[in-house]
Fold this sequence. Notes:
The protein is α/β, with parallel strands linked by helices. The protein folds into two domains: about 1-115 and about 300-335, 2-Layer Sandwich (Nucleotidyltransferase, domain 5); about 125-300, 2-Layer Sandwich (Nucleotidyltransferase, domain 5), CATH 3.30.420. It is built from ten helices and ten strands. A five-stranded mixed β-sheet has the order 3-2-1-4-5, sandwiched between helices. Strand 9, helix 9 and strand 10 (about 290-295) form a beta-alpha-beta unit. It starts with a strand and ends in a 20-residue tail after the last helix.
Amino acid sequence: MLILGIESSCDETAASICEDCRNIKSSVISTQIEEHKKYGGVVPEIASRRHCENILGVVQKALDDANVTLPELDGIAVTYAPGLIGALLVGVSFAKAIAFSAGKPLIPVHHIAGHIAANYICHKDLEPPYLCVVASGAHSHIVEVLDYTKFHVIGRTRDDAAGECFDKCARAMGFPYPGGIHIDESAQTGDCTAFRLPHPVVAGSEFDFSFSGLKTSVINMIHHAEQKGETINKNDLSASIQKTIADIITEKTLLAAESYGYRKIALAGGVSANTGVRSALAKACAEKGYEFYMPEISLCGDNGAMIACQGSYNFLAGITADESLNARATLSMDEI
């Protein structure tokens, strides 16, 4: 079984060929980071235009690298939600066109399900059910993975996502976009106990996240220091921010695992590349005797391989779409 996966939900145009669900034969990513860096974040209109320019070449290279032709494919998988609507529309429209022209099934894939599936590529032994925490620039979810295509969200962010908190704190500290990686690098030589930062909670929702208060606390601290002419040690502040976010994610995840009876935990999403988060959750799971899985760094961010992998499982489950498939900027996993 050969599935082409297409991803264009934000600022990466990506495509991949997956064989038999977990074997990645090719993976091509065209990133726009350098272009968006000058604006301090992703500009949706620019992202959409670049997807239009790049998608044909990216998909063709994925096919060429895998030595696969369109007629040999069993299906075309594409991210249709959630994400930047203009960016999603480019991928969905392109996938619909080639699926129709080649007479192949069109397979809709939820972006967060794709991130979860990145773990299947790296861990051939991982099978549902298990608990997965998905943390990225736009999402912070704790998800019950009941089956390959069945999910139940038990916790989510009520405001900023973990990655968004990293990036906004980094911007206030003067780091370039994307800021999360710069905080990670700076934290390596910092004192994580130098600053006491808040651990926001959501009243009545013990598994939900809230990172807005943490972000505001950091920004206010930086502004107050600037007004007084004081200099904040960036390495120490980076280490403190990273530890706080890692602790919050770890605490919520382990609480959910204990409450729902899971001893198998996975991590996914762009923030899963953060060394502090990876280390904290891995250590906590080891102390509890839980099985722990996380993707390779190359599969933490947006990529076509995770969409091709999840698309393969969707295809086996009979989840396909017709030409009426449309992109959706927001869509809960519970609505899949």
